[in-house]
Design goal:
Its main location: membrane. The chain has 496 residues and is α/β, with parallel strands linked by helices. 62% of the residues lie in helices and 7% in strands. It has two domains: 328 residues, no CATH class; 90 residues, Transcription Regulator spoIIAA (2-Layer Sandwich). It is built from 20 helices and six strands. Strands 3-4-5-6 form a four-stranded mixed sheet. Strands 1-2 form a two-stranded antiparallel sheet. The model has no long low-confidence stretch (mean pLDDT 86).
């Protein structure tokens, strides 16, 4: 039995993250992530068509809030390209206030979906759809940079090339400092020292000089406002949850730990609600920054909290310096993000030769629809539907019907093998020789499963055809679930 002093010592033992070694790792990881968040938060703000401070504030509030309410420790959530692409039309057509209302409504939808257990649906998301989602996101991020490479001085192209060279070459020498940060600092110092006239972050909008302020969006509280923002809020909620749950699953695998996906789902909603009330553009989990954090050794919520806190301190205290960053540097960062996001293995000739054509078709459908509509949620839905149709078609061909005649010729046994559902059972009625079969027929379903009403209706039709010819039909071998489904529906589905 544990002594009283030992028990008290156990109860008062400090959390693991307060140990000097872990604390140092969490603090340094949070600082590196904060530095890496700045260029992307600004870039995603520009994609969304808002001032950089809107994205920076969103990154701060998302990270800090999810440090407390999220379900995946050490995961980083902030303003992202996926959300920026979804909400950009709201800003373009209706303004920033409608964007804020969209973010709040999107957060409410996420919290509701999280409470309803939508995270459990992730297991129904095919890998080919996830690959298509990732590839489409990469393409959209890249195409969003093209306006900043059109009708600009030739020096912009030179700066982009130098930035890309730094981000490709530096990691081969050292990974102590994020290569995007080095590229941004070097290009900014060069353009300032050379007094080069190129587009800068300051040209895109005012950076924050104070802390974010709590407030409500200035929009009419009418049905018309709801009609305008609801489609974008739903798309934002679905895209945000999808990317966040995908990232959480990835971190689970890297750290060999399990996260609470349901908590993460409603936590994302809470974070977006908070972000909206503070005037942010919303966001979700960031795969790139999360990998930086986890690979730096972070494993607790402290690194997530500090990443958001350090980000706010950096942009508020160093706003004038951030305004000098050339847009070419950020374009280079986003090009590297798009290249790193794209799953190049998925389009390698060897992979395409080995991959079933149906899997490739699902990936291509997801990418094509997403790029065409600029809506990641629509692309994922189309991809899932395509996968379902192709799967049903493939499984339908796995049903077989074999027959054997008893030696005395009085009974014929049909043995059905496979999964019986709407796609496979509709043709089942044509697999029997009604006119020539003997007076007794047995259908053996011991190697089959009945999954839906369509199958029961087909069996009813078969029974009717035999009864019309005076043939006695017996159906045997059904397992418990098939028997239960058949008993409940047989004879109650109307005419055939």
């Amino acid at each position: 039995m544990m002594s009283l002093p030992a028990a008290l010592s156990s109860r008062l033992r400090r959390p693991s993250w307060l140990s000097p070694r872990v604390l140092r790792t969490e603090v340094l990881a949070g600082l590196v992530v904060a530095l890496a968040l700045i260029p992307e938060a600004i870039s995603f703000s520009i994609i969304a068509g808002v001032d950089p401070r809107v994205g920076l504030f969103a990154s701060f509030t998302m990270a800090v809030t999810l440090a407390f309410v999220g379900g995946r420790p050490a995961m980083i959530s902030a303003a992202t390209g996926a959300v920026a692409l979804v909400v950009a039309p709201v800003v373009r057509d209706h303004g920033v206030e409608y964007l804020i209302a969209t973010v709040i409504l999107g957060g409410l939808i996420q919290a509701l979906l999280g409470g309803l257990g939508v995270a459990r649906l992730m297991r129904f998301l095919p890998r080919s759809v996830m690959v298509g989602f990732t590839n489409a996101l990469a393409i959209l991020i890249f195409t969003a940079q093209l306006p900043y490479l059109t009708d600009v001085p030739w020096t912009v192209y030179a700066l982009v090339a130098v930035g890309l060279a730094v981000m490709v070459g530096l990691p081969r020498v050292t990974k102590a400092i994020p290569a995007p940060l080095v590229a941004i600092v070097a290009l900014t110092a060069f353009t300032v020292a050379a007094s080069m006239s190129v587009p800068t972050v300051g040209d895109q909008g005012e950076l924050p000089s104070s802390l974010p302020v709590l407030g409500l969006p200035s929009v009419p509280l009418t049905f018309e406002t709801l009609r305008v923002i609801a489609p974008y809020a739903l798309a934002m909620a679905l895209v945000g949850l999808l990317e966040s749950l995908m990232t959480a699953k990835l971190v689970d695998g890297i750290t060999d730990t399990h996260s609470n996906k349901t908590r993460e789902s409603w936590g994302q909603g809470v974070a977006n609600i908070v972000t909206g009330f503070f005037g942010g553009m919303g966001g979700c989990a960031m795969i790139g920054q999360t990998m930086i954090n986890v690979k730096s050794g972070a494993r607790t919520r402290l690194s997530t909290f500090l990443a958001g806190l350090f980000l706010l301190v950096l942009v508020v205290a160093l706003g004038p310096v951030v305004a000098l960053i050339p847009m070419a540097a950020l374009v280079g960062v986003m090009i590297m993000v798009s290249v790193g996001t794209f799953d190049w293995h998925s389009i390698h000739p060897a992979t395409l030769r080995r991959m079933p054509k149906s899997e490739t078709a699902v990936m291509v459908a997801t990418v094509a629809v997403t790029v065409f509509t600029h809506n990641l949620a629509i692309g994922v839905v189309v991809g899932v539907l395509t996968a379902m149709v192709l799967f049903a078609r493939r499984v339908a061909h796995l049903v077989s019907v074999d027959s054997v005649l008893d030696p005395d010729g009085s009974t014929k046994i049909y043995r059905v093998t496979g999964q019986l559902f709407f796609a496979s059972s509709n043709d089942l009625v044509f697999q029997f020789d009604y006119a020539n079969d003997p007076e007794n027929v047995v259908i053996d379903l011991s190697e089959a499963n009945i999954w839906d009403a369509s199958t029961v209706a087909s069996l009813d039709a078969i029974t009717t055809k035999y009864e019309q010819r005076g043939t006695t039909l017996t159906i045997t071998g059904m397992n418990d679930s098939s028997e239960k489904r058949h008993s409940a529906l047989a004879g109650n589905l109307g005419s055939h």
